[in-house]
Request: fold
Amino acid sequence: MIASPWGFELSEVRAPVLLWHGTEDVNVPIAVGRRVAQQLPDARLRVFEGAGHAVGMANQAEVMEAIRAAGERP
Reply:
C-alpha cells in the first residue's frame, strides 16, 4: 500500500495551504492534486505545465517566493 488514511478529513484543515503540481507527474496524477485542492478550505494550487513530480526542484525560485509571501499573509 502506497498511502494510508491520514486520520482527518481535508475539509477540517484550517491553515492556508499552498500546493504545487506538475501536469506530467507520473507518481501523483494532476487530477489528484486538483481534488486535494478542492477539498481544502483555503488552498491555492499552482499547476506547472510539463513539469513532473519534482516540480519544486525545477521551479525553486517561484516556490520559495510563494512560501515567503505566504508568511507575510495576515
The mean pLDDT is 87. The longest strand covers residues 17-22. Residues 16-71 form one domain.
